[in-house]
Amino acid sequence: MNFSGTELRRLYLSLPAHRRKWEELLALSGLTPEQEPDFAVALFDADDNIIGTASLAADVIKYVAIHPEHRGEAVANTLISVIIAQAGEQGVQTLTIFTKPEYSPLFTSLSFREIATSPAAVMLENTSGELTRCLDYLKRERQLAAPEAKSVGVIVMNANPLTLGHLHLIKQSAAKVDHLFIIPLAENPSNLFSYDSRCRALSAALAHLPNATLLRGSRYCISGITFPSYFLKQIEQRTDTHILLDLDLFGRHVAPALGATVRFVGSEPTDPLTARYNELMAATLPAGFGIEVVEIPRLTDATQQPISASAVRRHLLGGTLGSALRNLPAASLPAVMAKAATLALQAELDLTPKPGLVDTEGCGAHTDMDHALMSRSIAALEPVFADIVRASLSATLPAQPTLSRIGLEGEKSMLEATGGVNTHRGALFALGLTLSAATHLIYIDKPLTPASLSATIAEIAATFPRPEGTHGASVTKKFAIPTALDMARAGYADMFNRWMQEPDLHRRLLLIMSELPDSNLYHRGGVEGREFVSSEALRLLSATEYTDLLRELRALDSECIKRNLSPGGCADMLALSILCSSLTN
């Protein structure tokens, strides 16, 4: 397309020439790319120089830059028109743009309207539809929940995950107003826990607070669009601008829709970004909008450390969840413990190299599985694990029929995700049983130790009937080896007594391979196949150099592929050991 001697073309930022010219023009306009856009367009002059560019990232127009010599030539109008057309093709209805205040008239002339302002930036949208629907929803909820309330408070929280600290803030705040509204942050890929799981935990926790209402989150309250710095946990030059825009949205739109008179926050002694947010909130909302800001002192744990969701996430991701469980309400256990199980499965999957097993380098001895398929299977099992935990929050031992029903439903979810491939049936049984036992111990306030967990697993497993007529049962009967249920009834004694003591995961896997009578190996290679893997594992355990061990593991992987041997049961036990280490650490 030609435009006044120029050519309008799509930018492909993977091409070095396009990337260099694009970044040069952005720098000339004082812009720094912090996110790769989904679509970028540029206007090139006759010498193939970029004189204007604009991009689209999801539903946000970004990186609008015009060369100083060409400003005022309607270049921006042309670029934005292309972006709007592209967004329409993608089904995006509401487009947002952030720009300097002096450029606001340009976009208002293109039918955008300002919805939030700060000294350094304005936020505009090209339609009022989404904001209007959001505010209408808030007004209806206020009318339904608290039509007569004179003092109305609001808490905006992530609850990623919900902690006892969050509950303390909610209860203290609810006691100070006629009605309290809690707005959870909307879905964001940076969150470890999904929006649905966070809302489910909040709903369960609020069940006994009659003057507290959980609202639906939106892009207009600390979202990845209005406040990206929050999810990056970085203080940058633009952070204050993000904060002020978010607070302006709240004061100008959200608070009036709810009739809110006060906003509650928890004190923040550890996170500089949240502390800065609280500081600007206290300076902005009372002066600009007449909204009181009340800071509630943070609840501390037994060691006098502030209870925080970030600390829970650190323990969860670091494999020491047991250290953080005491800071979680029962409502959070399904999501948190299910996440621990899927992290353990993912850690086993990602461990590379592994003999005969799927890893990041290959499919091992499998022709029907790969890393992507296994990852989809793990994701499908997370809500199943959460259901198991939910069913185990009881003072009595979980009922075997209930656990079996959830397990069968979980198998269906797994098979749907994998197109019928049995990826994690054994792991679902072992990890599900362990989560159930651990949840029961937490609920009755007993220490979660390797000994107590092992004993409780054995106690629950004793209520399960022996499987008859299954493929696994026929293999174990043919070779006179223990079944998966036998190992569970023994409380996974080998794992707790020996395997978990090895900190290095490659060596732990080899230890398991050397000792476990893996039915997968017997099925694929008979006694000879299992003895080959066991003896090779013992040999590799003597390796003194880690680099030698990795080289030998890859060689053994090649040999297992030739022999069609895959120690899938060993992989399940490795994942189980990772989960148990985290729970009892």
Salient structural properties:
alpha/beta, eight-stranded mixed beta sheet, 13 strands
Model description:
The chain is of the alpha/beta class and 585 residues long. Helix content is 51%, strand content 11%. Strands 1-2-3-4-5-6-8-7 form an 8-stranded mixed sheet, sandwiched between helices. Strands 11-10-9-12-13 form a 5-stranded parallel sheet. Strand 9 (152-157), helix 5 (164-174) and strand 10 (179-184) form a beta-alpha-beta unit.
Total number of helices: 22
**Average pLDDT:** 92
Q: Terminal Cα separation, in Å?
A: 63 Å
**Largest β sheet strand count, sense and barrel closure:** 8 strands, mixed
Structural class: alpha/beta
The percent range for strand residues is: 5-15%
Number of strands: 13
Across the major sheet, the strand order is 1-2-3-4-5-6-8-7
The unreliable regions are none
